[in-house]
Write a structure and sequence with these properties.
Layout lengths: L44 H28 L2 H17 L18 H18 L5 H17 L2
Helix pairs in contact: 1-2, 1-3, 2-3, 2-4, 3-4
Length: 151
């Protein structure tokens, strides 16, 4: 959790497009995989697929950090999770609306994004006594926007 590779300039694509440029066979993503070039042989779809994996992993880590905070009381987990919720809330509307399969901004398709929402709800619930009112309002707004306006 200490290394966050998600950035506001990263547009997620579809995970099934993480294909070897030469063989067109699926590439196995791992947390150690370096960021590929945005352009060139591995650019475009490959890069956006890599982003989708990174973002999905980061979204999973938010709820894990919230749970670890609740279990251990260690504020570094709480602070990290809150920082990530702030990041996604602040950047959600800036990501382009993708409509090839539903409507999504954080992820490449609505199903992937909808799958992330319960984890975000759980993280907000676990952290709600600790987050500020504006932070909670922002997180709830992102969740509400996705749940009510993305379909």
């Amino acid at each position: 959790m200490s290394v966050v590779r998600d950035r506001a300039d990263m547009e997620a694509g579809h995970i099934f497009k993480l294909l070897d440029p030469k063989t067109k066979l699926p590439v196995t993503w791992s947390v150690d995989m370096p960021e590929p070039a945005k352009v060139g042989v591995t650019g475009g779809d490959y890069w956006r697929a890599w982003v989708a994996y990174v973002r999905s992993r980061n979204l999973d880590n938010i709820v894990e950090a919230a749970r670890l905070y609740k279990l251990t009381g260690r504020t570094n987990y709480r602070d990290w999770a809150i920082d990530q919720l702030d990041f996604y809330a602040a950047n959600y509307q800036s990501w382009p609306l993708q409509t090839w399969n539903g409507k999504a901004r954080m992820m490449g398709q609505s199903l992937d994004e909808a799958s992330a929402v319960p984890s975000l709800v759980d993280a907000v619930r676990l952290l709600s006594p600790e987050v500020t009112v504006p932070q909670e309002r922002m997180a709830r707004q992102v969740i509400h926007t996705h749940c009510t306006k993305s379909y």
